């Protein structure tokens, strides 16, 4: 009986031992197979050390692949304090080379950490300094590759692109907005050390950094350089408080150039105040548009059939009575009896008040809203403003009248460019954009609204605005043998107390080429220029003309002499059309070329060609070479 009980106990004990052994086997299997990678990683982390190798940010390129923002390879200083034996000597030598105090460097050398990144003294070191440190050959002192942003053209496009911090993180502009694409993945040099931080004689591992993705802009570097050069020259010449320039493709919303002055150099952004580096005036600044806004009123009135610009007339006495207010024209004695084409040419305020009255507030403000005013355009840039419009329930006769000629409301430059583009392209409002491709994904034009106005309305507005440049206030933007349309603007600025500032204006011009089939829209504004007649046609239109001439050259736009001829004034340089001379006799050709210097080439009597060509406008008094048979 006793023996039987003993056997049972032995059996239970044996089974218990087997179970324990079984559980041990399972645990070992779990550790060695299932948990191996996790535990191995944790173990490696205890005795491995990583030294960061910084990845390059993606490049920023223009629409043609020209690099605007690149990277410069520099060197960073890293310390492993436990590997440094003579801390006094290392601190002393490094402090001399880096030109910092001994105490500051001694703090880094004695830091209770496995790896100490010397910041900021040891960041972005030149090769000369790095070479001096390398020659010391100190244990625990490492030099690793770092990347520093290189804004190749300094101030160019600075407000649009923005800038990065010392760790290559985007802090403003496109650098911030597209940071997740531009930022790469850092690599590292991995080595092994014991519990005291002493380096073990095991091979190092190197993980390559993965660079960020490049982004392509809609910007054309050549157009941008032209815009910034001309705008900066005027900004300095007139000692202006600020300046804005935008060039956009009318049929897509692509921004070809954008500039805001004062600008800054992103390579040295710390040298500028916050106001300068954070305000992209082209999309942020709100201001009364002045007469450039009359384009909206004109298009609305034509589209609603409340005016025939060729047959209807308006008699301007220099002022108009609206409710209890009297609103004046810039020409105090008035322009007299005019067609509405002439009202546009002369930028006659009372004439546009009459158009606003014909429309009524509901219709006028419907077009204003449809064209995108009072809300953000949605451009892919940081810091856009909405502008300020009257509340509909607060619009009386005076508010309607002043809005009709661009006073009492606030808009942004980008709103005006997108709205005018819609008016002249046949009625399609596009969302403006600056980035054309990111992460190999192409950004395509986005239509915000179609059929705002009819194609016929658009055609009539283009004619009227071409007439402004040929015969009216925009004559300083006229380019011989090309069809340019546009409108000038002179807007008195509003002070902090809500009253108009004396002698302080924003002078602007918005124009396009070619007037019959617009591709490119340009906007120029000068904030409070000094020493110049306070009209947009005098200060801003000539800047636009120079940029448009460069655009003609850049895109090889062909001449078109079918547009409106310029009406000349006493102080203008006169251009005359070369007649068709081919087939005429030498005598007949000479009689038609009065006002030119004529040089005949050949001995024949019949004309077979000329230089300049027939139907080309050239300066009066120029030499015309006539080739005879």
Key phrases:
elongated; five-stranded antiparallel sheet; Penicillin-binding protein 2a (Domain 2); 629 residues; seven-stranded mixed sheet; Beta-lactamase; alpha+beta
Spatial separation of the terminal alpha carbons: 144 Å
CATH level-3 fold name of the largest domain: Beta-lactamase
CATH architecture of the largest domain: 3-Layer(aba) Sandwich
**CATH class type of the largest domain:** Alpha Beta
- Shape descriptor: elongated
Number of domains: 4
- The number of E-state strands comes to 26
Structural class: alpha+beta
User: How would a textbook summarize the main sheet?
Assistant: 7 strands, mixed
Counting H and I runs of at least 4 residues, what is the number of helices? 21
Helix content class: 25-40%
Summary of the model, kept short:
The chain is built from 21 helices and 26 strands. With 629 residues, it is an alpha+beta fold.
Description:
This protein is of the alpha+beta class and 629 residues long. The chain has 4 domains: 2-34; 49-216, Penicillin-binding protein 2a (Domain 2), CATH 3.90.1310.10; 288-489, Beta-lactamase; 575-628, 2-Layer Sandwich (Trypsin Inhibitor V, Chain A), CATH 3.30.10. Helix 3 (87-98) packs across helix 4 and helix 12 (294-303) crosses helix 15 (361-370). The N and C termini lie far apart (144 Å).
Map the helices and strands.
Elements (H helix, E strand, L loop, with lengths): L1 H33 L1 H12 E6 L6 E2 L5 E13 L7 H12 L3 H8 L6 E2 L9 H10 L4 E11 L6 H4 L11 H5 L1 H4 L4 E6 L12 E3 L7 E3 L3 H17 L4 E8 L5 E7 L12 H5 L2 H4 L9 H10 L9 E4 L2 E4 L2 E4 L7 E4 H7 L2 H11 L1 H10 L26 H8 L8 H12 L4 E3 L3 E4 L2 E2 L3 E4 L5 H17 L12 E11 L5 E14 L6 E8 L8 H4 L1 H14 L20 E3 L8 H7 L4 E5 L5 E5 L5 E3 L3 E6 L1
Parallel strand pairs: 2-8, 23-26
Antiparallel strand pairs: 1-6, 2-3, 3-4, 3-5, 6-7, 8-16, 9-10, 9-21, 11-14, 12-13, 15-18, 16-17, 19-20, 20-21, 22-25, 24-26
Helix pairs in contact: 3-4, 3-5, 9-20, 12-14, 12-15, 12-18, 13-18, 14-16
């Amino acid at each position: 009986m006793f023996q039987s009980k003993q056997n049972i106990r032995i059996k239970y004990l044996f089974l218990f031992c087997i179970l324990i052994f079984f559980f041990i086997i399972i645990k070992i299997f779990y550790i060695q197979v299932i948990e191996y990678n996790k535990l191995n990683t944790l173990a490696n982390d205890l005795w491995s050390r990583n030294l960061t190798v910084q990845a390059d940010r993606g490049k920023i390129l223009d629409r043609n692949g020209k690099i605007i923002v690149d990277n410069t390879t520099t060197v960073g200083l890293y310390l492993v304090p436990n590997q440094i034996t003579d801390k006094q000597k290392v601190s002393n030598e490094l402090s001399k080379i880096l030109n910092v105090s001994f105490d500051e460097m001694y703090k880094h050398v004695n830091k209770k950490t496995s790896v100490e990144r010397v910041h900021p003294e040891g960041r972005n070191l030149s090769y000369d300094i790095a070479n001096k440190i390398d020659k010391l050959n100190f244990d625990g002192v490492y030099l690793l590759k770092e990347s520093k942003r290189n804004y190749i053209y300094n101030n160019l496009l600075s407000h649009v692109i923005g800038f990065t911090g010392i760790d290559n993180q985007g802090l403003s502009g496109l650098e911030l907005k597209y940071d997740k694409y531009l930022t790469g993945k850092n690599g590292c040099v991995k080595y092994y050390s014991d519990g005291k931080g002493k380096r073990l004689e095991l091979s190092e591992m190197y993980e390559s950094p993965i660079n960020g993705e490049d982004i392509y802009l809609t910007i054309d570097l050549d157009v941008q350089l032209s815009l910034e050069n001309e705008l900066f020259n005027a900004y300095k010449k007139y000692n202006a408080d600020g300046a804005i320039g935008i060039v956009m493709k009318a049929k897509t919303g692509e921004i070809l150039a954008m500039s805001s002055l004062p600008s800054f150099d992103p390579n040295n952004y710390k040298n500028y105040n916050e106001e300068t580096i954070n305000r992209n005036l082209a999309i942020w600044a709100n201001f009364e548009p002045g007469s450039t806004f009359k384009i909206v009123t004109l298009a609305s009135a034509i589209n609603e059939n409340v005016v025939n610009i060729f047959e209807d007339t308006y008699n301007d006495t220099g002022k108009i009575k609206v409710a209890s207010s009297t609103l004046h024209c810039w020409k105090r004695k008035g322009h007299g009896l005019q067609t509405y084409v002439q009202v546009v040419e002369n930028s006659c305020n009372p004439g546009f008040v009459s158009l606003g009255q014909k429309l009524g507030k509901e219709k006028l403000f419907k077009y204003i809203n449809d064209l995108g005013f009072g809300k953000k355009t949605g451009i892919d840039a940081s810091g856009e403003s909405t502008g300020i419009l009257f509340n509909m329930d607060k619009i009386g006769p005076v508010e309607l009248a002043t809005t009709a000629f661009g006073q009492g409301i606030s808009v942004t430059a980008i709103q005006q460019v997108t709205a005018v583009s819609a008016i002249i392209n046949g009625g399609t409002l596009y969302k403006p954009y600056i980035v054309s491709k990111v992460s190999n994904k192409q950004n395509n034009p986005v239509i915000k609204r179609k059929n705002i106005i009819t194609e016929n309305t658009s055609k009539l507005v283009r004619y009227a605005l071409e007439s402004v440049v040929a015969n009216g206030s925009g004559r300083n933007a006229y380019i011989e043998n090309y069809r340019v349309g546009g409108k000038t603007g002179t807007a008195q600025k509003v002070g902090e107390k809500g009253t108009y500032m004396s002698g302080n204006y924003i002078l602007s011009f918005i124009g396009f080429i070619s007037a019959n089939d617009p591709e490119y829209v340009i906007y120029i504004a000068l904030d409070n220029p000094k020493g110049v007649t306070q009209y947009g046609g005098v200060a801003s239109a000539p800047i636009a003309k120079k940029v448009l001439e460069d655009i003609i050259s850049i895109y090889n736009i062909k001449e078109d002499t079918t547009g409106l001829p310029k009406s000349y004034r006493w102080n203008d340089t006169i251009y005359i059309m070369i007649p068709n001379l081919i087939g005429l006799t030498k005598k007949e050709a000479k009689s038609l070329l009065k006002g030119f210097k004529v040089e005949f080439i050949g001995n024949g009597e019949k004309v077979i060609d000329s230089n300049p060509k027939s139907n080309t406008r050239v300066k009066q008094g120029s030499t015309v070479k006539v080739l005879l048979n």
